[in-house]
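Standup notes
- DV: blocked on the single-chain target, sequence here:
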Amino acid sequence: MNEMNVILLGAPGAGKGTQAAVLCKEFSVPHISTGDMFRQAVQAQTPLGLSAKSFMERGELVPDEVTVGIVAERLAADDTARGFLLDGFPRTLPQAGALDDVLGQLRKGLTAVLNIEVPEEELIRRLTGRQVCKVCGATYHRLFHPSSQGEACGLCGGALYQRVDDSEATVRSRLLVYSRQTTPLIEHYRQRGLLKNIDGLLPIDVVTERLRELLRVRHDRTEIRP
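- DV (later): unblocked, structure below
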């Protein structure tokens, strides 16, 4: 059986993390996110990890060449022998080209690029609903996990507040950046015959089953090489 080498796309709030956890467990492949890769490289004190750390400590974006190097290190790890699920990379066309080079060197091919589609207004509704207790730090969501005490914490009674990065203005800005970066990427993978779109408005379990079906079909095919 072929490896299952998958890229998972979707805007913030689309539900990628939820779906990735289920799929990776079922297909026995690691969930590889940009954040995980950075943390592991920094913790291992690899040269690239230390380089990334220096940029992060200065509050600067990590350059593509460092990010790509860390991706290459992670994808070469033993636990990717049966495949991987990439989340958060690539984000741009240059990164997609660099990923092709990395996969070519590793003699791996992509199985599929799964794109969870959710309308912007729904994403905003999801992303702006988070509330945090000022006293104990407990986290709630107005829609999906409301406090039993309304605007007070159900655990300690402390007042709930919204973080600045969860405000509508900030969320809209994040979504705009994502759209600008990712729209060309989506078209790139569509032209290569790798892209599969999934309606993220469907119930979570239905989205999961659609993703499973797509991966089962493509899992037994030959991967598409860069």
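- Follow-up: Residues 168-191 form the longest helix (24 residues).
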